[in-house]
Amino acid sequence: MACCAVAAFVIMRLLSLHHNLQCKLNLSEPKPGLPALQKAPRNTDSTCRISLTGITCAACTRSVQKALSSVPGVTSASVSLSLFQAHVQYDPSKTTPEALAAAVEDNGYGAEILPPPKSWRDDFEKADGLRKREIESWRSSFFSSILFTIPAILLPYSAPASSGPWASFILFDLEAACTAAGVFYCARHIHREALAAVRARRGDMSLLSSLGVLFGFIQSFATFLCHLQSSQANCDLPSFDAISTLVTVVLGGRYLKALVSRRAMGFAAELSTVMPSSTTVTSLRDIDQDLRAASEAIPIDFLNPDDWVIVPPGLAIPGDGVVVKGGSHVSETCITGEIAPRFKRAGDEVLAGSTNLDGELVVGITRTGTDTWLEKTLQFVARADSGRSSTEGPINTIIERFVGVVLVLAVTTVIAWRLFSDANWSECLRRDA
User: What domain of life is recorded for the organism (predicted)?
Assistant: First the structure.
């Protein structure tokens, strides 16, 4: 075995020597007839970051990506749902960031040009703040809809048996008012998304939800007008409880979707908040001296490699580095996933974002800002979210076509009921709903 290993090593060294000699000989010999090598053209493309509002799912990101890619001069475009951002590489001689933002707005979404990134942590913190506001908005709409739905369900059954027709009309007016509040106030965000989809000539689930709620309310109100103008038995006093329930169910689904979306990005959001906002830097380099005698607190953005920082117990380490003085248990749970803390002493490496638990440490910083392990992890998360899997494209296509198929089937059903039955248009709409 030893002889075989030695022989393999010698052969590999000889092959390497032969390859190097051949390369040198080939470089020294002239090559007549071959064209002179030309330098590759310099990449003059610029990059742009655009903050997006109104995107809620993978279909939205695909729509934005298609809109950006259709702009002349765009080399590549990727959309991150986790950051609510679009990263575009473009030719500045053919287009501008303002034109890219306008293309996004024409597609029905909000767009704002962002400056170059200083830290991925700031982007994730901002995205998490947007998710929190989205959750609060849907939660408020959902519980408001519940408050309007309960009276809409109970009012039709609260009229006394001996009451006259005016009591029924008063209760019906109250029920209609509660339903209208749910349809036009609580579900206003869904109607805005549907209007944006219509302007951008695309179909999504918000469009279906909005049309279903609005047509159901209009049909019930039309039946009520029929009841006022006619005393026929087939014009019964309608009920709005089904419409109110539908609004509540749709808003509850959007509320749960917002919760799940934030929890799915909980790991990245937690990573973005582990770094301290400031740190204590010492100008001394002798570990035998009192390092706090020449120390000062600075914002973490002003931290540079080769700085020595003093990390007291309970605070996070501001950058990747090496312990130069002290010893303490350090928790890296948020960074590496290890539950048990590790004891760090002089000469051991530490990562940015890990928490010093019990002793004071003096750390010599080696990497700061976007060069730290934490920042690179967040960058990988954003890039992975911007990419598409092999099944995402077909699924998004199916979703886009599903909306059109549902609308065509609904219109066809109404027309079929009208042509092949004796029902009027109001009755056809009621059956279709």
Answer: Eukaryota
